[in-house]
Amino acid sequence: MNDDATKRRNRIMLLVLFAIAILPLLGAYWLYESSRSAKPWGTTNRGELLDPIVSVADLKIAAADGKASMVSGQWWLVVVESDGCPQECQSAVHQLHQLHILLGRDASRVRRALVAVGDAPLDESVRNNYPELVLFNAPAGALRPGVYVVDPLGNVVLRYDYRDADKPVLEDMKQLLKVSHIG
C-alpha cells in the first residue's frame, strides 16, 4: 500500500509540474487571441499609416533634374502639391526645413523633397529659398497634397496634413530613425 501511495503522489506531482508549465502558455494564448479580436491594436505613429504601402516606383515619380531618386537608401520628407505651392505648401516646406535642423546628428539620414503633381508650375520663391530641396514631378492623381515620409527602400509610409507638418512629423521621424537599421 505504501508503494501505491508513493506512485500516486509521484503522478500527482508530475501532473502539477506539467500544469505549471502549460497553463501560463494557454492563458497567454487566450489573452492574445481575445484582445486581438476585440478592437484594433494601438499605434504610436501620429501620421496616417498608408495601407497598403505604396512604392515610389509605382507612382512614377521622377526627379526634375533627372539625377535624384527617392530609392537612395535615405529617409525622405516629401511635400506633395498639385497647385503650384500656395501659402500652406510653403509653410509646410519651411516647417520641414526647421524639422530637419532639429533632427541633429540624424539629419544626414534624411532628405527633403517637393513633388509637383500634374502640370502646375512651382512657385519660384520655393526654389530660391530652399536650394537644397530636391524637386520631383508626378502624374496627376498620384498622391493627394500633404506631407509624406518615404523610407530608404522607396516606400511611402506615412501621410500628414499640411497643418501637422511640425511636431507630429518630428516625433515620428525620431522614432523611425531610432528603430531603423537602414538609411
Whole-number count of domains? 2
- Number of helical segments? 5
Give the topology string: H per helix, E per strand: HEHEEHEHEEEH
**Quaternary state of the chains:** single chain
Q: Give the CA-based shape.
A: elongated
Low-pLDDT ranges: none
**CATH level 4 superfamily of the largest domain:** Glutaredoxin
Using only CA atoms, what is the Rg?
26 Å
- CATH C-level class of the largest domain is Alpha Beta
Helix fraction by DSSP (H/I, runs of at least 4): 40-55%
CATH topology of the largest domain: Glutaredoxin
Separation, N- and C-terminal Cα atoms = 73 Å
Strand content: 15-25%
Q: What is the β-strand count?
A: 7
The biggest beta sheet is recorded as: 7 strands, mixed
Strand order of the largest sheet: 1-7-6-3-4-5-2
CATH architecture of the largest domain: 3-Layer(aba) Sandwich
The class by helix and strand makeup works out as alpha/beta
What's a quick, concise take on this entry?
The protein has 183 residues and is of the alpha/beta class.
Features:
Glutaredoxin, seven-stranded mixed β-sheet, 2 domains, 22% strand, 183 residues, 7 strands, alpha/beta, 5 helices
Provide an overview of this structure:
By secondary structure, the chain is an alpha/beta fold. It folds into two domains: 1-42; 48-179, 3-Layer(aba) Sandwich (Glutaredoxin), CATH 3.40.30.10. Helices cover 42% and strands 22% of the residues. A seven-stranded mixed sheet has the order 1-7-6-3-4-5-2. The radius of gyration is 26 Å and the shape is elongated.
